[in-house]
Amino acid sequence: MRLGRAVCGGILLAALAAGGVLVVWKRPAAEPPPEPVRLTLHELPPEEEGERLSQYDELIRKYAARYDFDWRLIAAMIAVESRFDAECRTADGGMGLMQLMPDTAEEMRCAKPFDPEENIATGVKFLRSLCDRIPGNLTERDRLQFALAAYNGGYGHLIDARKLAKTLELSPDKWRGNVEESIQFLEHESYYKQSRHGYCKAQVIIRHVERVMKKFDEYSERFSATGPSARRIF
């Protein structure tokens, strides 16, 4: 083995002395692994399903149109609430695709909250009832953010947060940087004890609003705005 290396070395030196060109072989760089396809649980790959988002698309469009919503908003809510899992249950009592709470299901007379159609129909109807209670002089985006906050944390806490916003010299009619700020005070005893509806999980509500809005914007770019149920906000 040593002799072979010596001979090869001698040949190499002779070639270089004669003006030869040394060609250095390099191992080709390994190709980076492909990026993983990140899909929401139960979300269908668009390249395989065309414009379909989930197996519940028809139901989402149906009830979004019935209650005058952009279907992509309802899809965004379901993606965030349950990741399109009709059997989803949470520790705080949320049920099904739109995570109906037991008292909401009872109030809205939803007998089968784990049935996809009944769950979507009830959730969208409930969201419409919340939107209709929010003053119409607000911007559409603020109305939507208020409705999402109320859907997640309760309309009473939204009322308390808007009242507190006035006390803090913030705007009670704007979510971002205003009611979004005042609602956080309702996590502190000195404030929630003076409010009508008491303590609320403000950080959970804020994250929920942010996640739904982000997903809604994503779906709005991904899917074309066609048909009566593809309006931008309301």
From TrEMBL:
Gene3D superfamilies membership: 1.10.530.10
Similarity comment: family membership: Belongs to the transglycosylase Slt family.
InterPro entries for the chain: Lysozyme-like_dom_sf (IPR023346), Transglycosylase_SLT_dom_1 (IPR008258)
Domain of life assignment: Bacteria
Coiled coil: none
Record field: transmembrane: none
Domain (Transglycosylase SLT) ranges: 59-168
Record's protein name: Transglycosylase SLT domain-containing protein
